[in-house]
Structure formats: C-alpha cells, structure tokens
Amino acid sequence: MKLTPDIVKKIKTDIALGELTQKEIGDKYNVSRSIISDIACNRRHQGVEVSISDVPPEQRQLLRLQAEVEHLKTERDTFKRQLRSEAKQNGLFYAIVEEMERRITPVAPLPSARPVYEPSGRITEHLVMHLSDGHHDQIITKNDTGGLEEYDFNISCCRAERYIDTTLKWTQETLSSQFSFPSVTILAYGDHTSGEIHGAVSRSHYRNQFNNSLAIGQLHALMFRDLAPYFDQVNVVYVPGNHGRRSNKKDYLGAHDNWDYLVAKVAELHCKGIHNINFNIPNSYVANVNIDGVGFQIFHGDDIKSSLGIPWYGLEKRRHRMMALNNMQASVPIRYYCCGHFHRPGSTTEVNGEMLINGAWPATDAYAFNALGGFTEPSQLIHGVNKEYGITWRLPVKLRSEYEHSGPRRYKVSI
C-alpha cells in the first residue's frame, strides 16, 4: 500500500492515541510493523505533521488529555531530579542534625555573673565579637613554617580560652567603670574548619571531617557558655566560608552544604539549655545584622577579587557596590562590612562606611609561609557599638598564650 500524506497523518494519529499496537496499526493500513516503527521514531515521513484539526472531533479531547498527562510527567521528572540533587547536597547535613538532636547532651549553663544593681551614669553599648578563620582542625608544625608557628586543635582550644578571658576582662573589669554591655553579638563568618579541599582531612586533627566538625562545634559552644553569665543576651550569627564547602566550586545556592553549617548546628544544639543564647544560621553566604540600629553586613570574603595579589581594591569595590544595593532596600543602612579570609586584619574607611577585615587563629601555615612569605600575629576583633555613634572603640585580641603548648585548662572537648 502506498503511503500518502493523508494515510501517514492517520498512522501518526493512531500512534499518538496509543489505542492500537504498532502491529495492529500496520495490519490496519496493510504495511509492515517496521514501517510503523520508523514513522513513530520519526525516521520516515518527518515532513508530515499532524495538527489537532486533522484528528476526528471525538478523539481531540483524548489527545488533549494525553498531552496534559505528558506535561505533568515531565514536571514530575524535573521535580524528582531537583529533589535528588537537593538530597545529595543539603539532605546529608539536615539528616545528621536531626539525628544529633537526639544524641547531643546540651552543656549546663553557668551561674549568672550579672550584678543585680549596676552603677548609674555608665554608657550602655553593645559588645561585638568577630569569629572567623579558626581552622581549628588544621595541624601546623614548626618544620612547615621555619619555626614561626605550631598549631593544632588543642592549641586552638587554648587560644579560644585566651579570646574569651581577654574579652571578659576588658569588658567586665577594664571598661566597667564607664561602660555597661548588656548584650553581645558574635559575628561568625566561616572557615572554622579547613574542610575537605586541598586534601586537608587526611592531615587534620581527627583525620575525619565529621569528628572535626563535631569537636569544633563543641568548642564554640563552650566559648558561648562562658560568655552567657555576663550578658543578658548572647546573639550568634553564622555564615559559611570557602574551606567548608563540599562542592568542587562554590555553590551559591548551597550555603548549608558546608561543614561550617554543621559546626554552627552542633554549637546550637550544645547551647540548647542556655536560654539567653540565640542563634541565627541563614542559608546564605551573606547576612545583614541590625545591632542597636547600626547596620553590619558579614560575609567570608572569598569572593573578593585581588589585583596583583592585593585585595584592597576588590574590598573597596565590593563595599561600594553593596552600599549602592543597600540604598535600594527599606532596611537599616549598612555602615560596617565585615569579612575574614585573608588572614590579615585591617580596615578601609570612608565617610559613610567601613570595611573590617578580621584576623586568623593560626599565624601562618606551610602554604602562606612558603608561597607568600605570610605571617600575622593571631588575633580576633572585638569592639563596642553605640546606637548613636556606631563603633566607639575596638581591640584586636591577641590569641597566643604562654601555656598553649601544655594544653587547654578548661575547654576539654570530647566526641
């Protein structure tokens, strides 16, 4: 039988309706099943197209319904792929956190150290502590750094003790005659762990990234616990860094697909029983924070582009662009932009804004020493915020202590 365009249209209509098998369609039009298969696969008669007007009226509604079913199937398959991708990324950490909620025993709160009556006439300010670039699980030896640095998890615990002790002594003793600090906000912006990149896990403290993250989260919780008795409110904001990422390249839609997120959740679970500690862990690489009416923006800083190895132009460019975007938002104007990443503290300022760059916990490492000749005294920034004047004073807290090589005195971490 010769296949005319009209017959081909009828064959294609029967194929689309799906009521007959290919063999039955071949018998109906007296052609072989292989020809029907070629037409169905568009290997023959590609130029013959079937429109809805070519279909008998009683079958048009059936075709419309079939088309809708195919469309729904396509949408279903798309959603399944998205869910599988989401499960591979964030699902792992969400499942771990859900399990840890049943297994982690919160740390016991310490007795309040806030005075019942405070002297009048003191200036009330908000204390801000910066927490970044701890790389607490990294191991650095003197052989790696020309004798300049030795660092591991236990030394980082000693430096954490020094950070908290210095902060409390400064705010509760040195400044206490003139200043009162009812609240503290900890801005934590990443690289608390060295993560999986650059083969860091095999050279880390626990040689296991889960254990590294659990230990670091517990260390942070002990720090927050020690702050809680001295303040009415302890606010903690976490955004991730670049070392904790689990993807080969930074996934801008996967901020929680990051070991820093697990560190934050572990710290939150350990502090669950301390009611004046509040956590904010957004699924974002950037967070805007309102501190007594003064706007802060925190981000890790790995997106800053350097020029000839120098990041200052990139930092200024970032600040100007974010200020322009902030002016379009109906929110508290951002006055201070805070980042880490560069392991070198500093600041750049103009009339209406300032970029604050936090220091790091290790002074140097094998890469910084050999490739860059880099060394910076380990430090973390603290400062006071006045609702009217913004930052009024600042102190880079030196983290090294004379006893750090003998082990921590009170931050004993067990996993």
Radius of gyration: 31 Å
Q: Count the E strands.
A: 11
Which structural class fits the helix and strand makeup?
A: alpha/beta
* CATH architecture descriptor text of the largest domain: 4-Layer Sandwich
Tally of individual helices: 9
Uncertain residue segments = none
Report the top-level CATH class of the largest domain. Alpha Beta
Amino-to-carboxy terminus distance: 80 Å
> Can you say what the CATH homologous superfamily of the largest domain is?
Metallo-dependent phosphatases
Strand content: 15-25%
Average pLDDT, rounded to a whole number, is 88
Assembly type of the chains comes to single chain
Descriptive notes:
By secondary structure, the protein is of the alpha/beta class. It has two domains: 5-55; 117-406, Metallo-dependent phosphatases (Purple Acid Phosphatase, chain A, domain 2, 4-Layer Sandwich), CATH 3.60.21. 36% of the residues lie in helices and 18% in strands. The chain has nine helices and eleven strands. The strands form two sheets. It has a six-stranded mixed β-sheet with strand order 4-3-2-1-10-11. Strands 5-6-7-9-8 form a five-stranded mixed β-sheet, with helices on one face. Helix 7 links the parallel strand 3 and strand 4 (277-280). Helix 2 (22-29) crosses helix 3 (33-40) and helix 5 (153-174) packs parallel to helix 6.
Topology:
Blueprint: H1 5-17, H2 22-29, H3 33-40, H4 57-103, E1 123-131, H5 153-174, E2 179-188, H6 209-227, E3 233-238, H7 259-270, E4 277-280, E5 286-291, E6 294-299, H8 312-326, E7 334-339, E8 346-350, E9 353-357, H9 366-372, E10 379-386, E11 390-398
Parallel strand pairs: 1-2, 2-3, 3-4, 6-7, 7-9
Antiparallel strand pairs: 1-10, 5-6, 8-9, 10-11
